[in-house]
Amino acid sequence: xxxxxxxxxxxxxxxxxxxxxxxxxEPGDPAILQSAASSAATLGRxxxxxxxxxxxxxxxxxxxGSWECLSENEFLAGQLDEAAAHSxxxxxxxxxxxxxxxxxxxxxVMQGRPQDAxxxxxxxxxxxxxxxxxPIAYHALGQRKESDAALSKLITKYHASNAYEIAQIYAFRxxxxxxxxxxxxxxAQRESSLIETKVDLFxxxxxxxxxxxxxxxxxxxxxx
Length: 224
Fold this sequence. Notes:
This protein has a domain at 1-98: Tetratricopeptide repeat domain (Serine Threonine Protein Phosphatase 5, Tetratricopeptide repeat), CATH 1.25.40.10. It starts with a helix and ends in a 6-residue tail after the last helix. The chain contains 13 helices and no strands. The chain is an all-alpha fold.
């Protein structure tokens, strides 16, 4: 229920209520704590998110999913070294851990290590995720021609389903007008990734643009 309220309705208060109800009914379920952590993180409540994610790890320390959840929340909170270590921990437990190499590639880019991201990108199983990360990694490496070519391929193939990811790339490349155009398309397409808009590190360069606060308002997200 919380996932529907969050991703379908942008009803953050309703999602919080549903998650609290789920925890009350089953406080020992790590999957519920993972969901609760992700929900708190999307609103920028990182202390709460990390506490819940650590709780999921403590309940099931051999679960790759629990470690990946912790890593994701640390990534969003800007704790990049911790996120990298815990993503690797998840992959040590299972090479099939989700999101695995995808998250690790994102972390490496944000750490200023795009050269380390490239071999991880090759390990990602899903075409759309690789197509998203190549333009970003090439841009971070200063390879503008390669970034442009990879972005063009992504737009051609996935414009109808992954407008949010295209917006992320444009924001990362400091092309703000294009970023907001594609965020608008993502909103029109009701893409589930929009729930991370407030805390998305790839969109961070948009924060000082007044259009960003206006867009958060459309999503019922607080600007502060």
